[in-house]
Fold this sequence. Notes:
Pfam families: ParD_like. InterPro entries: ParD-like. This is ParD-like antitoxin of type II toxin-antitoxin system. It comes from Candidatus Methylobacter favarea. By secondary structure, this protein is mainly α. The protein has helices at 9-21, 26-42, 48-60. The chain starts with 8 loop residues before the first helix and ends in a 15-residue tail after the last helix.
Amino acid sequence: MGIPVRIDDALYEQARAQAQAERRTIAGQIEFWALVGRTALDNPDLPIDFVRDLLIARAEGPTLATPFVPEGKRS
């Protein structure tokens, strides 16, 4: 269920531009930012870029994952 929320015009325009670049809806972009922010606050020892990349990777699922191969076993 969606609930209308008032936000600053500048924030809306930033979300619109970023949403277009990342192929999300404006609401989806703002939700993503909120999730990144909440996760970063819950894990202050982690860099924000790591938090963002982790959330993106989890959303992509295992089908796009690159398997880990230890250095000694690379061909």
